[in-house]
Amino acid sequence: NGNQPTPGPEFGATGLQPQDQPTDQTLTTRQGHPLYNNQNVRTVGSRGPTTLENYPFLEKISHFDRERIPERVVHARGAGAHGVFEAYGTVGDEPVSKYTRAKLFQEKGKQTPVFVRFSTVIHGGHSPETLRDPRGFAVKFYTEDGNWDLVGNNLKVFFIRDAMKFPDLVHAFKPDPLTNRQDGGRIFDFISNTPEAMHMITFLFSPWGIPANYRQMQGSGVNTYKWVNDKGEGVLVKYHWEPLQGIKNLAQPEAEQIQAKNFNHATQDLYDAIEAGNYPQWELLVQIMSDDEHPELDFDPLDDTKLWPTDQFPWMPVGKMTLNKNPENYFHEVEQVAFGTGVLVDGLDFSDDKMLQGRTFSYSDTQRYRVGTNYLQLPINAPKKHVATNQRDGQMQYRVDTAPGQNPHVNYEPSSLNGLKQPERKAPDHTPYIAGNLVRQPIDRTNNFSQAGERYRLFEDWERDDLINNLVDALSGAEQHIQDKMVELFSQCDEDYGRRVREGLQQAGDRQKHGQVNNEANQEAVQKAEEMAHP
Ligand code: HEM
Description:
- Helices cover 30% and strands 15% of the residues.
- It has 535 residues and is of the alpha+beta class.
- Strand 2 (90-91) and strand 3 form a beta hairpin.
- Helix 5 (198-204) packs parallel to helix 10 (450-458) and helix 11 packs across helix 13.
- The longest helix is centred in the last third of the chain and has 39 residues, at 495-533.
- It starts with 54 loop residues before the first helix and ends with a helix.
């Protein structure tokens, strides 16, 4: 029987033959043992049972069991590329140093390596790239002062202005916890109670909610940051990426045609363009505003549901980014890369934007869970400069971040025994004065509708038509009182906007009723036919 001992070519746990000399191509285990039999588990006879001391099999299968890390809680599906950012040295007609001392911007032509990850937001790691969703646009600049991450989206505004609401927003857009389906009824239940989302919804349900690919879309920091100069003076700043390939968005039927044949089209487009040497480029532009409340504006400058009007705050170019190299390994680079809004360099700072502050906790928190405690030691996340800390150990620590010549006994500071030294800051800190009562309150100037209405009127006809169709489609499944509430909100943005959605919903309702009547008539006919066939 098959359990008879069968002499084979095996030797020891790996099948190593003492006379064999491994080469660079030799398949090994992770322990470095040549793996002479990668086809069969070790069994008692050829029919088994399998033995448990079979280390090469246990190592292989248990590593496979752990191949996945948790996908990002949002922005799970992405594509990435390496490139370079080149500074102009100026902002508008002025030297950039007037506003920021960040070294990467200072000299004309100065180059800084970057890694970019584009993404969709709501659906899982292998979801179609044609879905209506904001697109992530995250850039890691490996500067001489350490890393700077600019974690943005394609759209320039956001759904909410308070970080407290983010998990609810995401839950409403993610699949229903019971049916596991994305559901317009749940989305608009939340949105109808979140009037600040109207500006973002107007963009999202128009063709701007489905960029044609990652190369032909804009990017934006969305939240407000600060620039700080060498006197320690700060200004508010918003960042925008403008694609030199032009902008292209899809109407819903175009997206559906692509999706029927290819649900990886954006990843493929980026990869193929870079392989073909057709390197995509974006210009980085900023808007600058003095750091105060600006009572003359009808919105709060720190409200991320608003655009800063370009006639008052012009877009000023500061540099250009070129993506010129595909990742060598998707998992190492695109999956394990970790961006965060807290990752700033000298000369860049936070504003008091409440969303920005909430985000800044969330990113590194999730990455410690998603990638691991020592995620910053991975090559894609580590700065391309020397790192010296007294942070030690933890899961998967890969190296000790020590300085050359540092006393190995000293992993604390201060010390007089040749440990790491706290450097002295030469440029003055930015130290804004802040005073007030600690409260939990919304901002005063909410102005939820006027920019959404303006956007509605600015769209081209085909964009407005697509917007109305998409809203009617998504709202059709919502309960009547939610539809009514949404029509009321659209009307507050623009009378015509509300009217068209209301009429669209009425027509869709009529069609549905008509369909039902037809269905009933059909069923009657089928029943009659059956009765005739089987009297
Ligand atoms: C990813 C939180 C708002 C852009 C993420 C991730 C979290 C998160 C936890 C996953 C990160 C990871 O696993 O590495 C939040 C919170 C927000 C917020 C709490 C609001 C309070 C925004 C806004 C934008 C944005 C307003 C656009 C400016 C992105 C992008 C990614 C991302 C682009 C993907 C980064 C990548 O490619 O790895 N966000 N987010 N998020 N978020 Fe946000």
